[in-house]
Every structure is written in C-alpha cells, then in structure tokens.
Design brief:
The chain is mainly β. The chain has one helix spanning 205-216; strands spanning 2-5, 8-11, 23-24, 34-41, 44-51, 54-61, 64-71, 74-81, 89-91, 94-101, 109-111, 114-121, 129-131, 134-135, 139-142, 150-152, 160-162, 170-171. 36% of the residues are buried.
C-alpha cells in the first residue's frame, strides 16, 4: 500500500491483505526477541522498555506509556495509531514500512535511527530531536506539529515535510538535498543557512530570507538611534 506526498511515495504496511491474521498480544516479550503478526491495543503503561527486539507486521493502537525506551530494535511493517509516546527515547533502531498516525510523540529523542519508508501523519512532535538520523528510503511528515523540533547531523535527503507546523524548528548541520519543504511556513525556522539544495516554492523565498535575517541578528539602519 503506497501513499504519495509531493515527489515521495511511501510504501506502508498492508495489514489488511488476504490471509493475514493478527493475534492479540498483551506484551512484547519473546524468547527469540521477535514478535510477529500481532495486534497490541489500549494499554496504559508506566514503562515500555524494548532492547534487541524485532516487531514485524503488526498494529499498535491506543497505547499510552509514561516512559518509552527502544534500543537496538527493528520495526518492520508496523502501524502505530492514536498512541501517546511522549518523551520516547529511540536509539540505534531501524524502521522499515512504519507509520505513526495521530500520535503524540512530544519531547522524543530519535538518535542513530535509520528510516526506510516511514510516515509520520497528523502527529505532535513538538520539542523532539532527531540526531544522526538517516533516511535511506522514502520519509514523509504530513500535517505534523514540529514546533521547536531539532534535526542535528541527520540525512533527510529526498524526504518531504507536507503541511507541517515548523515554528522555531531547527535544522542543524546535515544533508538536506532535495528535502521537499513546499507547503510549510519557513519564516521562523532556525538554521536556514544549512538548508542548501532543498525544494521550495518561489513564494517561500521571502519566508526563508526572513528566517535567515533573524538568524543573523542584523540591525536595520532605520532603527538606529539618529542622535550623534
């Protein structure tokens, strides 16, 4: 199942294909470290810690966890819908054909994560950080809130941000070639000077210039004290 955003087509998990049966699970414990063909719903947890775990072909809905720690995990063909994963810490992970839809992931930290065919749709990611994150395949953020979110040392080449809120979002040094930023207000982003070779509409030139001027902290001559 494919969804297209701008010039990017993301291949999403097809969890309704004929012959596929998802078993209800109440935990992600497995002796082999693999949980497959699963459905996990409506859990309210204090802690959700997963290390060296593979979640393959499944759906997670209505999950709320006060503390989420994913380390060295692999998610393949997994859908998260209506989940509250605020302040999640996701480290050294690989996500393939994964969608986060209608989720709260505010204040989360994605570190050393590899993304391949991943979609964040209608998610709140305010104050989150993406550090050393690599998009090795299609990646899209659609109708997401990314206010004061930071991207540092990441490769977002050919990714797309579609109709997102980017107030004070910061783009640190990284790779942004062909990052599609059309349809977003860029006037308050930080790190505008790092956004070389991105894709924008002509109307966004003024917004990007405004962001760059603010970043340079220039003084306009007409605001100077005229007194000598």
């Amino acid at each position: 199942m494919d969804s297209t955003f701008g010039r990017v087509t993301v291949t999403l998990p097809n969890l309704t294909e004929p012959g596929l049966y998802l078993s209800n699970v109440t935990a992600f414990d497995s002796a082999r470290g693999i949980v497959q063909d699963f459905q996990y719903a409506d859990a309210n947890l204090r802690n959700l810690d997963l290390t060296d775990t593979n979640l393959i072909t499944g759906r997670v809905t209505g999950l709320r966890a006060d503390r989420v720690q994913f380390e060295k995990i692999r998610l393949d063909s997994v859908e998260f819908d209506g989940c509250d994963l605020a302040t999640a810490r996701i480290t050294d992970a690989k996500l393939s054909r994964v969608v986060f839809r209608n989720c709260k992931i505010m204040g989360a930290a994605f570190t050393g994560v590899t993304l391949d065919n991943v979609l964040f749709e209608n998610c709140k990611l305010d104050y989150s950080s993406f550090e050393q994150v690599r998009a090795i395949g299609p990646l899209a953020f659609s109708k997401c809130v990314l206010n004061e979110t930071t991207f540092t040392g990441s490769d977002l080449s050919r990714a797309v941000l579609d109709a997102c809120s980017l107030r004070l979002a910061e783009f640190g040094r990284g790779k942004y070639q062909d990052l599609d930023l059309r349809g977003n207000d860029l006037s308050t982003v930080r790190g505008a000077a790092n956004l070389g070779k991105v894709i924008i509409d002509r109307a966004q030139q003024a917004e990007l210039a405004e962001a760059l001027v603010a970043e340079l902290d220039v003084t306009f001559a007409d605001t100077l004290d005229s007194r000598r």
